[in-house]
Design goal:
3 domains; globular; v583 fold; single chain; Enterococcus faecalis V583 fold; four-stranded antiparallel sheet; alpha+beta
């Protein structure tokens, strides 16, 4: 009894779990309170909680090893993380899409995100398709291009189905020059177009004469000069450049000032030796210099080439792709192969260029979320607090985003590190099980396209992926797992 009385006489140090209203009430009464951030697993959804329990309970054993299903998943995820960390993305050249992209054909247009047909494409993607058809010489104007696109003579497939990725609308047509990035560890390759810059550009759905003229210059001048420069220079180690850029304030998705500068520094001596006139070489260097996002189209295939080797790893619950076509947001999961899990594309919350507002914006679009899937971009925002000037928020928000991503990943990058966090590796390996259990979705920063074709970029911001994609994948993953194990 004495000890109980002593307890009531002493100052209480209380840990409050759940609603903060109780913590505030106790603090008002003079108690020392630590608020514990806790939520009901799986959002309290019975079906999801039941699956999570079955994955982790000892009653659901794999007879041959006596392991839980979660044990098998953890082993597969550890192998996957090792493969991703060992990846070594390297620029090996530039080629024409028709010549180098697997399965590319003269009547095929590749696009960002999960599969979508012409009728269901959003405004900016339709605009980019029309621009590509005009650029290819298949149509002379908007009306003719739209008619051809709807005729059934043109096929549409996701970039991801052809070892490629594309920012925003993500359009790749046969004649477009593309970066060729090889993962030197696994031997696979990935492809991406060259970055046009910001504003009124094809990837944001613009297709004016000015846009087509720039694309032709990129095909006929920029790509040949860069291709020859790479031959003179030799392979470019992207892993090293990305690692350096993250140390210099980039996050690899919407902030690429350092990465672009490092690329120019790497290639400039070789460009000086290219067999082109001085004015042409100056134009190429000025174009790269004036486009801070030029490096984005290299971080994207770096991520794609690093994640494709785990695209069909048995028992692995890691996300291998997140992509948006402006209509739907979709994910793919290693242990589920090429299957897409989709939900309506969310709207972006961010900063708009003068004269535009949320009413003008298209829902989220683009393959550039491969950056976050890879462990950079929004996952590395703590190392790039200046990004908030472009996407909104405060520098402390950038740090909070990165810290929360450690909650839903299986590990850290052994290459990409964040100085502000004591050189801790970026959170790497999005686990659908952790996403569903904790209700935390990946942090993504992105550009904003106008909802109508032909206008282009109108801002940038942050977007939350739909949790439904991860929940549906989680249920399908459990079904496949139990079927494989005869449970």
């Amino acid at each position: 009894m004495h000890e109980i009385a002593k307890l009531f006489e002493s100052r209480l140090n209380i840990a409050n779990v759940g609603s903060e209203i109780f913590a505030r009430s106790l603090e008002f009464q003079g108690a020392q309170v630590v608020q514990v951030d806790w939520k009901i697993p799986c959002g309290g959804k019975d079906e999801l909680i039941s699956i999570l329990t079955k994955l982790r309970t000892r009653e659901t054993r794999v007879a041959t090893k006596g392991q839980t299903l979660q044990d098998l998943i953890d082993e597969a995820n550890s192998r996957a993380l090792e493969i991703v960390n060992a990846s070594h993305p390297t620029v090996v050249g530039i080629g024409r899409a028709l010549d180098v992209i697997p399965g590319m054909e003269t009547n095929l247009i590749l696009h960002a995100g999960p599969p979508v047909d012409w009728e269901n494409m959003c405004g900016p993607m339709k605009g980019a398709v029309m621009g590509a058809l005009i650029y290819e010489g298949m149509a002379s104007d908007e009306k003719e291009a739209a008619s051809l696109a709807a005729s059934g003579k043109i096929r549409f497939e996701p970039c991801h189905h052809h070892s490629a990725v594309g920012p925003m609308a993500g359009i790749i047509s046969p004649s477009m020059p593309v970066w060729i990035v090889e993962n030197k560890h696994s031997g696979n390759k990935a492809y991406c177009t060259l970055n046009e810059g910001l504003g009124k550009v094809l990837r944001y759905g613009a297709y004016s004469d000015e846009v087509i003229k720039k694309l032709k210059w990129m095909e006929e001048v920029l790509a040949p000069v860069l291709g020859e420069a790479i031959q003179i220079h030799g392979d470019i180690d992207l892993r090293t450049l990305i690692a350096q850029a993250l140390q210099m304030g980039d996050e690899g998705h919407n902030r690429n000032k350092a990465g672009t500068s490092l690329l120019i520094r790497e290639l400039a001596p070789a460009i000086a030796l290219v067999k082109a006139d001085e004015r042409t070489k100056s134009e190429v260097l000025n174009f790269m210099h004036s486009n801070d996002h030029f490096f984005l189209n290299l971080t994207m295939p770096a991520g794609k080439s690093s994640l494709d080797p785990i695209s069909d790893l048995r028992h692995c619950s890691l996300v291998t792709a997140m992509a948006r076509n402006g209509t739907e947001f979709g994910i793919r999961v290693s242990g589920l192969g090429d299957r897409w899990f989709t939900a309506p594309a969310p709207r972006v919350k961010g900063l708009y260029f003068p004269g535009f507002s949320d009413e003008d914006a298209n829902p989220d679009i683009g393959d550039s979320t491969i950056c976050e899937t890879y462990g950079i971009g929004g996952f590395a925002m703590a190392g790039a607090p200046a990004i908030v000037e472009f996407v909104g928020g405060k520098p402390s928000d950038a740090i909070a985003f990165t810290l929360s991503m450690y909650e839903i990943t299986v590990g850290e990058s052994s290459i990409y590190r964040i100085p502000l966090l004591g050189f801790r590796g970026t959170p790497t390996g999005i686990d659908i099980i952790k996403v569903v259990e904790k209700g935390i979705v990946p942090a993504i920063n992105t550009g904003i396209a106008h909802k109508d074709a032909g206008i282009g970029q109108i801002g940038a911001g942050l977007v939350e992926p739909p949790l439904k994609c991860f929940e549906d994948a989680f249920k399908a993953f459990y079904t496949r797992l139990t079927k494989e194990m005869n449970l």
